[in-house]
Amino acid sequence: MRCAGTILILAIFYVNSFIQDARACSCVPLQKRLFYCNAEFAVKAKVVNEQRWPFPRDIRVYMIKTGGGKLLRTLKGNFTNVDLTKVYTQSKSSTCGITLEQDKVYLLTGHIDASKCPHRLSIVLCDWIQTWRTLSRTEKTFVTKGYLNGCP
Ligand SMILES: *[C@@H]1O[C@H](CO)[C@@H](O)[C@H](O)[C@H]1NC(C)=O
Fold it and tell me: Where is Zn(2+) annotated to bind (predicted)?
């Protein structure tokens, strides 16, 4: 079965932290690089727009473009059976949701929600998410291939 998958430990961790502290999203302070090493996926993506997502209301969905040619591309992860046209986040920053701006190109990192079919790209405020043009040259090198040797 292509879509069989277990709910990720990471997902459980985030859900737990929502329940424990409903008002504030707190992130473990780590270096960006370590976040990258821990991330299940990384893509260079352009945000096309925000999709209306009526139910459940606490989910926000952005349509993205990635994984095409050299410009917008996948950087890290196993994208088998993953929907690369959308990213999912919580609707509020208090529950670690993140706001993305339309038409901007981002480095997006996060976890792959394998409990859904197709699998979903899921991001939170704590992930390393940054507009591509504000990354330093060193960071760009790291996220494209440097991490292969640079992660513990
Ligand atoms: C990628 O993920 C699929 C299922 O989502 C799995 O069957 C496959 O073994 C994975 N490949 C690697 C290289 O981990």
Answer: 25
